[in-house]
Design brief:
It holds the Pfam family Acetyltransf_1. With about 160 residues, the chain is of the alpha+beta class. It is built from 4 helices and 7 strands; from the N terminus they run E-H-H-E-E-E-H-E-H-E-E. A 7-stranded mixed beta sheet has the order 1-2-3-4-5-7-6, with helices on both faces.
Amino acid sequence: MDVRPYRATDEAACLALFESNTPDFFTLQERADFANYLRTMSDPYFVVEDEGQVVACGGVFVRHDRQTAGLAWGMVGRAEHRRGYGRALLNARLDWLRQHAPEVGEVILDTSQHSAPFFAHLGFETTRVERDHYAPGLDRHDMRLLLGAPGRRPEAP
């Protein structure tokens, strides 16, 4: 397994990951937003490869206050769930923050009720739930991971 920065040549593979998780984790309407994000992003985005195949992808951003970071468009191919790729991707993003933005004390994300247990298991707490936010039956969970006082970094989950 290898985690590396996203390249434009990864676009089709990342869109295929998205499609493998529709409609349970993403709605069809979000595909255009994700495709646009891949083409225009300026923040770090990563892919996880296994035996030359892209099996997961996800990004990270730091807010202007430099105290808060977020996770963006993270996903693991549907057939690859529960194989450690999501944890590897999360750890790579947290490692990037440790190296490039050590002052960040909180990582935020929004996800559905289907992925919230994964993040909760790795230390994130739910701060808000909005029923049917993404689509009927697809709730939004706002979550955060407190990393401690600025400059103090816990080990990766």
